[in-house]
Design goal:
The complex is a heterodimer of chains A (about 450) and B (about 950).
Chain A: E1 3-8, H1 29-32, H2 34-49, E2 53-57, H3 68-83, E3 88-91, E4 111-113, E5 120-124, E6 132-136, E7 161-166, H4 181-185, E8 192-196, E9 202-205, E10 209-212, E11 228-235, E12 238-246, E13 250-258, H5 267-279, E14 294-295, E15 304-314, H6 317-323, H7 326-339, E16 346-356, H8 369-378, H9 384-393, E17 398-400, E18 412-414, H10 416-439
Parallel strand pairs in A: 1-2, 2-3, 3-4, 6-7, 7-8, 8-10, 12-14, 13-15, 15-16, 17-18
Antiparallel strand pairs in A: 1-11, 5-6, 9-10, 11-12
Chain B: E1 2-11, E2 14-19, E3 26-30, H1 37-45, E4 65-72, E5 75-82, E6 88-92, H2 100-104, H3 109-116, E7 117-119, H4 120-124, H5 133-141, H6 144-166, H7 180-198, H8 200-239, H9 241-254, H10 259-264, H11 270-297, H12 304-312, H13 314-355, H14 363-368, H15 373-417, E8 425-426, H16 431-450, H17 453-474, H18 481-526, H19 535-580, H20 593-638, H21 650-687, H22 691-697, H23 707-715, H24 721-759, H25 762-823, E9 826-832, E10 839-844, E11 850-851, H26 857-873, E12 881-884, H27 892-906, E13 911-915, H28 918-926, E14 932-937, E15 940-943, H29 947-958
Helix pairs in contact in B: 6-25, 7-25, 8-22, 8-24, 9-21, 11-20, 11-21, 12-20, 13-19, 13-20, 15-17, 15-18, 15-19, 16-17, 19-20, 20-21, 25-26, 25-27, 27-28, 28-29
Classes of the chains: A alpha/beta (about 450), B alpha/beta (about 950).
């Protein structure tokens, strides 16, 4: 006797797809409600699959000041599940900590909200003859340094048990429930960890499977995976299957265009190549990175694609692109105009310039003493002292954080990954400059 | 690169000075002061870039010319300098092509001059005594100098870029920073979003108020809905007052009637019976009229039996009546035809008698003659042949007669002419008459064939004589003899023609006799009385007989048909007479059918008239019976106990009809009541076809109760129409009050909705978010750009440091080792200052360091020599090194160490040691170094045997006096 349930997380209701609208054509209308639509599809999945229950592992709302509309949307969707006699188990995360969060509309009775004070264990369908147990705990504040999982002590009577936790799964990150995969796996009474917080689907196989479903709908290019939820079948002897159910109506993409490619000598060429690149569509399902999951059919299809274009490489058009900051904006608007009316819609979120001036191929200068010295010096930039120097010089607009979410809305999050990216770009810049000077 | 040969053909004091087969490692050239050593040094400095235009160069006698052979690796090249042209490098013995730059590699002219070709003066120059510090740095850092020197520029570029974006700190709050604008938009957007979010609580309060107002509005809507239903009910009750009254009244009256009997009464037959009643009256009247008419107008039927006989034989009488008219016409026509046939016979008999008196008008005489078309043709042909032959005979006879007369005339004329002298005889043309004869024969033959031989003969004769006459007229009388001959010819011709005619005449007469005999034979065969008749008459008689025979045949046929028709008429009238004889005397005589036919025909006419009257009586009776039968069927349908029959008197029948019709009127009245009731019900029920009516009364309905019952029951709650009106007014007042309150609430809801919308507008939130997103893009872009440039700047600075350290430090390490060997007292050399202000310090192992200024002159020169040697060692390619008395200030021990170092350097470099000191010439030899020794004197090179020889020369020149 087992259970089948839907595991979702990081709904972030109240936020929206960051389409970066301008003065030209309006973004595809589906983007306005994409986050809500994904949640509605989530519920449709649960109903269609006739799951036993639904788990949402934190960050239902995008902000602790929960909006009325988001509250109402959840209430109406949970009511649909209630009508089908499907219970919902919810823990709140760093974006919607229990704290003093206002509640405008009471959620239906089929919703069990884990308390923030102590871990709670609930039985499905009831405690008399439980078919499954769900244990979890909500965030009290935006930052939660308690290792809550230590207190997750469900009975070890063979009833399939699910642990629900919103965590970065990093024992060094004290703000988001410090824990390591091994820590969670050590809780042998728990058969499956339904996690939230990381915004990409991920399965970490230990003695007990740990899984992140990612958000149902990615809101920016950093969440470019097609969002969805996990359909988990849990038997007494453990997890039988985990399927990924796509729910996102909007797909994020980042396309790279190398201005050093042959045939690019003007902004018009760049525009042409971008158009060719972004309209060369593929089916994301064929490139599905399973990450340990089987891909199942979701309730809806991709209704629009939001694309960020990254210009890279070195070429003569670099100077034109950088001479006037409006060039990229105008290029973006022209592309939006020309792509307007496509079915399904295709929206250019922005064009990011990462190009450099036309320089001799760096490889041709491999014997150059200065370049060789520089490359050797920067091949690995993991020297803590050097990284510290870099962190100090990036400017006060940057905030050094472990998690991007820690940065303020008016700050730029300087995570290790971001620093690596900046250093890479700086390294390319220096190489380009040295190469250019050597060429002249 | 090493020199194998060096020819200074024209340079300063050198003219055709030659150094051949140079030693590859160490070449010692000794010469006194002003012998040309410094000029040689200067000449060798020109090799990298050609002879420059520096005025300080020693002048050429004619034109600068230096010619050398150099070896590089395993190849040889001719190296020439002419004038100020670029060096010319020519491969020798198939060596690969190379240029001067290839030979000198990355070593610049400055480096070559300062590192590889040193004079004592230059070696002794100390910082800042050397030309400038930069030169020193360039010399020390060599090819890397340019890159390293420009690295700070690269760093500065990144610094400038970062400064443009975010000044020195990348602080977005600084208003002059480019980061500030997007940052400000970002923070404004965040503030706007927070403000909108902060209004959520107020939104909730307004939502509660809105919900409360809506709830009250919903209550009012429900009340209004109830009142609306009540108003509708009352309106409907008011509308249906009349039909409800009708319904009640008709129900009461219908309750007294036998509705079952009404349903059973065949009232649908009422109208039919009324029609039958009228029909019955017509039928009885018609019967009476027909009976009276028969009695009054009957012709032959005197008794009822006769009337019955007529009806029994109605078909036969009708058939006779139909044929009567035709028979009458036939009898009349046959009578007329009989008269006509009789007249025709008389005329035929008269014609026959006229045709042949012996036949006495007998048809048999004519009918006895065999008439056939063959016979007639045969007769006609024979008659025509006889006629033609007779005509020809007459023509021939006439022609013979005329010919004889003509001959006689001609003979007479000839006789007259014979009296004329012979020469005067008339000439007669002979060919013309012959032509006329031929034409006459042809015409006669054609006409004879076309018509008959006789006619042909006549035609030929006429043509002949006509032609001859014409000929005759044309005969010219002159000369006289010719006419005589002509006349004789004509006579002869006429006589010939005459003889022909006579022969033809005999033939014609013979044939004529034969054909006349044939004609007689044919007439006899036909029985014609041909004797005494001309052949043409025989044919005419035959034709007349044939005509009469046809007329006789037609007469006989007409008479035969007449008799047949008469026989038929007789038979028909005989049969009619046989039928009618029962009731009438017709006077019929079969032997005189035409004469007695009228009696029979009249009897037929009378019988037909009586039959018609009898039939009228019968038809009237049948119609009455039919009407009574139909009446009986209707009466029986109503009441099986009631009946009518043909035997009943008319009044009895009419009484029964009257009873039925009275009952029908009663039924109709009942049905009218029921119709009124149904109409009232329909009107009430139809009112409930409208959903509004059903909704209004649905609350008062019990089960599937009919709507009419519901409305009647509800109406009972109101005594009269006035009570309903009062109730309507009361409901209208309540509705007005509720609607007014609801309108107030609606307005209130609108206000609250507007307020709530204003408080928590998703558009505001979205707009704020969009502003944040857009600003974030720009802020992030600039922030990244700032960070990248700063990191790039940092990297570049670090690169600069690292390069300096890696290149200069290693150089100093090697220089320290050389310096230590040269001095024996110092441990090494340290470098101070940056690239542009570099200075050296001599490091001691057991004492304080010394700056350049603190060292002795020789030690300072050894330090710079050590630095240069170190640099030369670390520089590729290997180039010749020229030292011009660079060790002058060294004591022998130090000089010996210098040669040790030079000896090691010579392994990779060709070293030219120029000196005027004999003791320095001897050092290499004493230290066992392989070397070549040249003496230089007044711009001329002379190779010496060994070092001692050279030293001796120098010592001699150096000796006083």
């Amino acid at each position: 006797m087992g259970v089948r349930f839907l595991h979702a997380a990081d709904l972030h209701l109240g936020s929206s797809v960051r389409t970066n609208p301008g003065s030209g054509p309006a973004p595809p209308s589906v983007c306005d409600r994409a986050v809500s639509t994904a949640v509605e599809r989530l519920v449709e999945c649960a109903l269609a699959e006739a799951v036993d229950f639904v788990i949402i592992a934190g960050d239902l709302y995008d902000d602790d000041a929960r909006s009325v509309r988001s509250n109402q949307l959840l209430e109406s969707q949970f009511a649909r599940l209630q009508a089908a006699d499907i219970p919902v188990y919810v823990c709140y995360g760093n974006h919607d900590p229990v704290g003093d969060a206002p509640v405008y509309v009471d959620l239906p009775d089929n919703v069990s909200e884990f308390d923030a004070a102590e871990p709670e264990t609930v039985a499905y369908p009831d405690a008399t003859v439980p078919e499954a147990r769900i244990v979890g705990q909500s965030y009290r504040d935006r930052h939660e340094s308690r290792s809550m999982y230590r207190q997750f002590t469900p009975p070890t009577d063979g009833v399939p048990t699910v642990g629900v936790l919103h965590t970065a799964l990093d024992p060094t990150m004290n703000r988001y429930v410090p824990a390591s995969p091994g820590d969670l796996a050590s809780k042998t009474a728990i058969d499956y960890w339904a996690l939230g917080h990381r915004h990409r689907r991920e399965r970490i196989d230990r003695a007990t499977p740990l899984a992140y479903p990612g958000p149902p709908q990615g809101r920016h290019v950093g969440e470019s995976e097609v969002g969805g939820a996990l359909l988990v079948t849990l038997e007494r002897d453990g997890v039988e299957s985990i399927e990924f159910l796509p729910t996102a109506p909007v797909r994020w993409e980042e396309r790279t265009v190398d201005i050093g490619s042959e045939g690019i000598a003007s902004v018009a060429d760049v525009e042409r190549v971008i158009r060719e690149t972004v309209t060369d569509r593929d089916d994301w399902r064929t490139e599905f990175d399973d990450a340990g999951f089987t891909l199942a059919d979701g309730p809806g299809s991709i209704e629009a694609t939001v694309c960020r274009v990254r210009l890279v490489g070195n070429g003569p058009v670099h100077d034109t692109l950088t001479d006037d900051a409006e060039t990229l904006v105008a290029l973006r608007d022209r592309l939006r105009q020309s792509l307007d009316g496509r079915t399904p819609p295709l929206w250019i979120e922005s064009i990011r310039d990462r190009t450099g001036p036309a320089v001799p191929p760096i490889a041709d200068l491999a014997d150059d003493r200065v370049i060789a010295t520089f490359r050797k010096m920067t091949d690995t930039v993991d020297d803590p002292e050097m990284r510290a120097t870099f962190r100090e010089c990036v400017g006060v607009a940057w905030s050094e954080v472990d998690d991007p979410e820690e940065a303020g809305a008016d700050e730029l999050a300087l995570t290790d990954d971001r620093l690596d990216a900046l250093v890479d770009r700086a390294r390319e810049r220096v190489l380009e400059e040295l190469a250019r000077r050597r060429a002249t | 690169m090493r020199f194998q040969r060096l020819h200074l053909d024209d340079f300063g004091c050198f003219r055709n000075a030659r150094l051949d087969d140079l030693h590859p490692n160490l070449v010692v050239i000794g010469g006194p002061q002003r012998a040309g050593k410094t000029t040689l040094l200067t000449a060798m400095r020109q090799f990298p870039g050609g002879i420059d235009r520096d005025d300080a160069l020693p002048p050429a006698t004619d034109r600068y010319r230096i010619d050398a052979t150099v070896a590089l690796e395993d190849h040889r090249y001719r190296y020439r300098l002419e004038g100020h042209a670029a060096p010319s490098v020519t491969p020798i013995d198939g060596a690969p092509e190379r240029t001067a730059a290839d030979l000198f590699g990355a070593v610049s002219e400055t480096q070559f001059r300062n590192l590889y070709t040193l004079s004592l003066d230059e070696l002794r120059k100390l910082p800042p005594g050397i030309d400038d510090s930069e030169d020193l740095a360039r010399v020390l850092l060599g090819g890397a100098y340019g890159d390293i020197a420009t690295i700070p520029e690269v760093a500065e570029t990144f610094d400038d870029r970062a400064d443009e974006i975010g000044l020195s700190r990348g602080d977005p709050t600084t208003s002059t920073s480019a980061l500030h604008e997007p940052y400000e938009r970002l923070t404004d957007g965040i503030a706007a979003r927070e403000e909108a979010t902060a209004q959520v609580a107020e939104h909730a309060r307004v939502s509660d108020q809105l919900a409360e107002a809506r709830e009250r509005r919903d209550d009012l809507d429900a009340t209004l809905a109830d009142l609306d239903l009540e108003r509708t009910r009352l309106n409907i009750l008011s509308e249906l007052t009349a039909p409800m009254a009708t319904l009640r009244e008709t129900e009461t009256r219908l309750a007294d009637g036998d509705l079952a009997a009404i349903e059973a009464f065949p009232d649908r037959q009422r109208e039919h019976l009324e029609h039958l009643n009228a029909t019955f009256d017509d039928a009885t009247e018609e019967l009476d009229t027909a009976t009276d008419a028969f009695e009054r107008e009957r012709r032959i039927a005197d008794t009822p039996d006769d009337r019955a006989w007529l009806l029994d034989n109605a078909d036969a009488i009708e058939a006779l009546s139909e044929a009567r008219q035709a028979w009458a016409q036939t009898a009349d026509r046959l009578g007329r035809q009989d008269e006509e046939l009789t007249e025709q016979r008389s005329e035929l008999e008269e014609t026959i008698a006229t045709l042949h008196p012996d036949w006495s008008g007998r048809f048999a005489e004519i009918e006895g003659i065999e008439i056939s078309a063959i016979d007639e043709a045969r007769l006609t042909q024979t008659v025509e042949t006889v006629d033609r032959l007779e005509s020809e005979r007459e023509s021939l006879e006439s022609s013979i007669e005329r010919a004889e007369a003509r001959i006689a005339d001609l003979e007479a004329e000839l006789a007259d002419m014979n009296e004329v002298p012979e020469p005067g005889e008339l000439s007669v043309p002979k060919r013309k008459p012959a032509g006329v004869g031929v034409v006459a024969i042809a015409v006669g033959a054609i006409v004879g064939l076309w018509s008959s031989p006789i006619v042909g003969g006549l035609a030929g004769t006429i043509v002949l004589f006509g032609g001859l006459a014409v000929i005759d007229l044309s005969v010219d009388a002159e000369p006289a003899l010719e006419p005589v001959r002509e006349l004789k010819g004509r006579v002869t011709s006429l006589e010939t023609d005459l003889e022909g005619d006579r022969e033809r005449l005999a033939t014609v007469e013979a044939r004529l006799a034969d054909h006349r005999a044939d004609l007689a034979t044919i007439s006899a065969e036909l029985g014609l009385p041909s004797e005494g008749m001309a052949p043409g008459d025989v044919e005419a008689f035959y034709r007349e007989v044939r005509s009469v025979a046809g007329r006789i045949r037609r007469y006989r046929n007409n008479r035969s048909r007449w008799e047949t028709e008469l026989s038929d008429l007789r038979g028909n009238l005989e049969a009619a007479n046989d039928l009618l004889a029962t009731v009438a005397d017709t006077g019929w005589d079969p032997d005189a059918p035409l004469a007695t036919s009228q009696g029979v025909l009249r009897a037929i006419e009378n019988a037909a008239a009586d039959l018609e009257a009898a039939r009228s009586i019968s038809a009237a009776r049948d119609r009455r019976e039919q009407v009574i039968a139909e009446i009986d069927e209707i009466v029986r349908e109503w009441n099986p106990d009631r009946s009518v029959s043909p035997g009943m008197a008319d009044r009895e029948v009419r009484a029964t009809i009257e009873v039925f019709l009275e009952r029908a009127e009663d039924v109709e009245r009942m049905r009218s009541l029921r119709t009124d009731r149904d109409a009232a019900l329909d009107r009430i029920e139809s009112r409930f076809e409208a959903s509004a009516a059903r909704e209004a009364f649905a609350p008062r309905r019990e089960g599937d109760e009919p709507w009419s019952a519901v409305v009647l029951r509800v109406a009972e709650e109101y005594p009269d129409a006035t009570a309903i009106e009062r109730a309507q007014e009361a409901v209208a007042d309540r509705i007005d009050a509720c609607e007014a309150e609801r309108e107030e609430l609606r307005e209130r809801c609108r206000e609250l909705e507007a307020k709530r919308e204003e408080l928590a507008s998703p558009a505001d939130l979205r707009e704020a978010q969009q502003q944040i997103d857009a600003a974030s893009v720009a802020f992030e872009r600039l922030g990244e750009e700032y960070a990248v440039n700063r990191i790039a700047e940092t990297m570049t600075e670090r690169l600069h440091t690292e390069l300096l350290e890696s290149i200069v430090d290693s150089l100093m390490d090697e220089a320290s080792a050389v310096f230590s060997r040269l001095t024996g007292t110092y441990e090494g050399i340290d470098i101070e200052g940056d690239l542009e202000t570099v200075t050296f310090r001599a490091r001691r192992a057991d004492g304080p360091d010394h700056g350049i200024g603190e060292l002795s002159r020789a030690t300072a020169e050894q330090l710079f020599l050590a630095v240069r040697v170190a640099k030369i060692r670390r520089t590729s390619p290997s180039l010749p090194v020229v030292l011009d008395d660079a060790t002058t200030n060294f004591d022998p021990a130090h000089a010996g160490r210098v040669f040790d170092v030079l000896g090691e350097l010579g392994a990779d470099h060709q070293v030219f040691f120029l000196t005027c000191h004999p003791n320095f010439v001897e050092i290499p030899a004493r230290r066992g170094m392989a070397a070549q020794y040249w003496a230089l004197e007044d711009g001329k090179f002379t190779e010496t045997v060994d070092a001692d020889a050279l030293a001796g020369q120098l010592a001699a020149e150096d000796a006083p006096g």
